[in-house]
DNA sequence: CTGGGGACGGGGCCC
DNA sequence: GGGGCCCCGTCCCCA
């Protein structure tokens, strides 16, 4: 029996050794095959690249022959020339191509310096150019096709030169370099091949964006689909010059909504992954006029116009990009960076107001401020309960509020009858809507966005500013029917009427003296009965 | 002269 | 946005 057990043990150990050896062999085979496979792939890629280069050379020759055959049929366009000159603020997403001096034509495989925003890189490009382009003067620009075989550059910058069959289309070159609207109207440059003469066709945004839509799903262009963005017939706020520019968010969260309704929330650290829509300042919807220069980091007012797209896959798979409206910045300075707004004047306060209004109309906001982050999760759970977060500051505030509530009696009671889903993160006070919470929290943060343009005063509420401005205008719309006194406020008139009626509703509990105002009673008690 | 009270203006804040 | 209440400060009157 014991021998049998030893025998089984030996067999088991032998089996284990054999199994390990077999696994090692399999792994070795797999590794070898994988290396061979990779080698083959690399060779195939090289061959593919060489073939593609040959093909492009052939295309170049053909195109050059066409150009030489009919030099007047081609105009070299640069739809980004205006941007490259700085006519637009959004130069980050475009490249200006610098042509080496002394060259009449580009050569194949000639490196070209590509000025892309702040950086400079060397791109392998092939340029189709005609002599007419040179004759067009400095305004003429280069039509550039980036070599796609490199494959690693961000393809949404690439210019699309379509070589599809478009027979029957007459040669059209509508780009007018001197047009004042050049920087606003995007033109699509289309080379129509298969015709006796090369032609460049210019299209406006409509077709460009439509084509962009198509390209989105083929992975050849990574711009966002305007229709999917739900931005109107043209897919963007009806600004004729809509463009997309990269927004270099710093660790900004972006929600990628998918068509199945799931929301994928990711942290976008890649600057190239997030885009926003350039707005025509003259055609911005409500709130978008507050868009400011991103380079200044002025996120709060810009946020409502940001349409952040998902991390764009550069490998060409189908991209699903839905509209995401990023709301994050307005609240941050409003709450945490109040100093940056306190002295900015009245107009900025208006911007705040407009910004708020515009934001509230946008469904499915993605908020990133601490306040909104808390609120969005669960409005009720945002209550920072007394047990965990009540500092002395909170206690003071709450004591004030509770005292106020007690003093106001029925007001507080009736207030509690409503559903107060939105709680102040400072004092846990509940409000019926987010706007009220935000206004209320200004009292904690000291933010007063509404500044008087005639004095140094600033206010947390627009109504307070409006009321204050009667001090400067001298407007007193409320007149006493008993006398000729006039008042700027209705409550002051009502208070004044007590003079005529003799109404003194506030009685001292110590001396039975009566007063017309509660504050009079309080002062009276402080002065005369404080020792009691 | 001083202190209490009234009238009023203005801001804070909530509904 | 407007109404309303509270609070504070200032001015004035008067005992």
TrEMBL record:
Annotated C2H2-type domain residues: 422-449, 450-477, 478-505, 506-532
Designated name of the protein: Gastrula zinc finger protein XlCGF48.2 isoform X2
Composition skew (Polar residues), residue ranges: 380-394
Organism from which the protein derives: Salmo salar
Chain segments carrying region Disordered: 101-120, 131-183, 364-394
Pfam family, one: zf-C2H2
Keyword Repeat attributed: yes
Transmembrane feature ranges: none
Gene3D superfamilies (UniProt xref): Classic Zinc Finger
Gene field: LOC106602404
InterPro entries: Zinc_finger (IPR050331), Znf_C2H2_sf (IPR036236), Znf_C2H2_type (IPR013087)
Keywords assigned: Metal-binding, Repeat, Zinc, Zinc-finger
Listed PANTHER family: PR DOMAIN ZINC FINGER PROTEIN, ZINC FINGER PROTEIN 22
